[in-house]
Automatic annotation (TrEMBL):
Residues 1-20 have a biased composition (Basic and acidic residues). Residues 190-283 form the GerMN domain. This is GerMN domain-containing protein. It holds the Pfam family LpqB_N. Residues 1-22 are annotated as: Disordered. InterPro entries: GerMN (IPR019606), LpqB_C (IPR018910), LpqB_N (IPR059026).
């Protein structure tokens, strides 16, 4: 510890975890480096914490140093750093072609969106003499990094935008949707995060999400930081000058929820005009009406499942024994159940009969009636209906597994007439589903042959002739490495809890982000034989995880191990 020297003030933004880590800087090219050494040095320099890749630019020909834009193309992630193969381009030893080869696992596009994409990577770099030294004068757009460097350099950030809900449900301004991206960890994290929000939603989410920021809005200051009172003040250009208070507060809400968990706990966002005058301010306590998890439900401490008598029971975090729920689903001598779902307000439940052929909806209070089936399956007892799922708008979703005509259905308000939701390019049958609270994303288990995979779909709403129609568009694989997926549950705004196994491996339970990357959440205790899982979307607390295992129900409370709840039980769920 130093015991002398001057006292120096430290900017509050420097207290962030990302800035407290050891930084890595590249090494400039040495005199007389051969082409292979030059390219290897360049690749290492691109993985440094140099804000503008200044050292990496030293490896380029002068004509390329200014025009090279590392962010102008995809960042390719390889399983290992690329292999460098050099071949002479002519007999005069004046230039060389250097080929980079590797096993690609993912790409990050120019809007920072991660996409799993396996394949062979092969690109060429051209090296020529300049001033007696070898320099790179032609290279592919973007960057290429190995997985280890990617994990060291980049961090996952949830940007937030407002769900586009058409004319149904809540107002489109009320529900914030998480849009995960990857940004560099130690390069001015607050400023880069704010700029990423202003860039707008990623290409996949864009059709169902909107930003409150006027087109062309930019940050005036080059560097932003959270001050000593944990307030974030941001000057915006003239594009934002005419916004009214409500729009400005929505803009501030997007930034508050995006920034607050990335580098410092933000207590307030203050948006200013270019001249420094205030547009609006939004404190954390006043931003609760925009909270991303507000549609997820009231709490995260109540779980539900089907007991040995095929009745619906509930289990709170502090309970040792489950309790029958009020209403027809928990009553003796009533309908026997296969699966259940509870709406986000925990006032109604949906249940599929034990034979899988009929879906019922009933209140969760004494005296409520069961009523007639809301949906009847086609295709006989070998197919039947999937477990249902409620979104945060009060709509109920279920899939009919009829092999001749599989259908995805939505019941508006939970009790409206079933409407078929089109799923273009669906290759297989939907055998499981979980709709996000925001109502614009749905996780699907899709079975083709003897393999079940996990897909994430975007729920688009279109109004034609005064009638609203829904479709699930652009299905993308979010667990491509899993040969078989057995169960899935939402576990946050951009996180899924998945049970599945890689080819030839044992089943494992893990968190996966909705962009397909492995979550940075801590690893879960090992468990196999899982047929169903349940986690909470609410961020209010660290919720318990519940699973159906070997015909019984087990639960994982925070800071503990899996514990048996009951030897007989199935279909665990949280509200949703």
């Amino acid at each position: 510890m130093p015991d002398s020297g001057e006292v120096r003030p430290v900017d509050s933004s420097q207290r962030a975890d990302a800035d407290s880590q050891v930084r890595v800087y590249g090494v400039a090219p040495h005199k007389g480096e051969r082409p292979q050494e030059l390219v290897t040095g360049f690749l290492e320099a691109t993985t440094s914490d140099d804000p503008d890749y200044g050292t990496a630019r030293m490896y380029l020909a002068k004509s390329k140093q200014r025009e090279w834009d590392p962010a102008g193309g995809d960042t390719v992630v390889l399983a290992e750093p690329p292999q460098v193969h050099v071949e002479r381009a002519d007999d005069r030893d004046q230039d060389y072609v250097v080929t980079l080869i590797g096993k690609q696992v993912a790409k990050i596009d120019p809007k920072h969106a991660y996409k799993p994409e396996e394949g062979t990577y092969k690109e060429r770099i051209h090296v020529a003499r300049e001033g007696g030294e070898w320099r790179i004068d032609m290279l592919p757009p973007g960057l290429v990094v190995g997985v280890a460097d990617f994990q060291r350099i980049y961090r996952s950030v949830n940007k937030y935008y407002f769900a586009e809900l058409g004319t149904s449900g809540r107002g489109k301004e009320e529900i914030l949707v998480a849009d995960p991206v990857y940004l560099r960890k130690r390069i001015d994290p607050v400023t880069s995060t704010v700029n990423a929000v202003l860039d707008g939603p990623t290409n996949w989410l864009d059709p169902v999400a909107a930003t409150a920021f006027p087109t062309g809005t930019k940050v005036v200051d080059r560097r932003l930081s959270v001050d000593d009172s944990n307030a974030l003040k941001i000057r915006l250009n003239k594009k934002a000058a005419g916004t009214n208070q409500e729009q400005c507060r929505r803009m501030a809400a997007q930034l508050l929820y995006t920034v607050q968990d990335q580098s410092a706990k933000v207590s307030q966002v203050v948006l200013q005009r270019e001249n420094g005058s205030q547009l609006c301010s939004l404190a954390r306590e006043d931003a609760r009406k925009y909270a991303p998890d507000q549609a997820a439900g009231r709490g995260a401490d109540q779980q539900y499942f089907v007991d040995a008598q095929h009745r619906m029971v509930s289990l709170a975090d502090g309970d040792e024994e489950p309790r029958r729920v009020p209403g027809p689903f928990g009553a003796d001598n009533a309908l026997q159940l296969r699966s259940v779902a509870v709406d986000r307000k925990e006032q109604r439940a949906a249940g599929v009969a034990n034979n899988g052929q009929a879906l019922y909806v009933a209140g969760m209070e004494a005296g409520a009636s069961l009523g007639d089936p809301r949906v009847t399956a086609r295709g006989g007892v070998k197919s039947g209906l999937t477990a249902p799922s409620w979104d945060g708008l009060g709509d109920l979703w279920v899939a009919d597994q009829d092999p001749d005509r599989p259908r995805l259905l939505r019941l508006p308000g939970g009790t409206g007439s079933p409407e078929e939701v089109q799923v273009p390019r669906l290759d297989g049958r939907i055998t499981g589903l979980r709709v996000a609270a925001d109502g614009v994303r749905v996780a699907l288990l899709v079975t083709k042959g003897d393999r079940t995979s996990l897909k994430l779909g975007r729920v688009e709403r279109r109004v034609s002739g005064g009638r609203l129609s829904l479709s699930v568009q652009e299905l993308r694989s979010v667990a491509p490495r899993l040969e078989q997926v057995d169960a899935v549950s939402w576990a946050g705004g951009s996180r899924l809890l998945v049970a599945g196994n890689e080819q030839g491996g044992l089943q494992q339970l893990q968190y996966i982000d909705t962009d397909g990357s492995l979550s940075n959440a801590s690893a879960l205790p090992g468990i196999t034989g899982v047929r169903g899982v349940a986690a909470s979307e609410s961020a209010a607390k660290a919720p318990a995880l519940v699973a159906e295992r070997d015909g019984g129900i087990v639960r994982l409370l925070p800071d503990s191990n899996w514990k048996l709840v009951t030897k007989e039980g199935s279909a665990p769920v949280y509200p949703g």
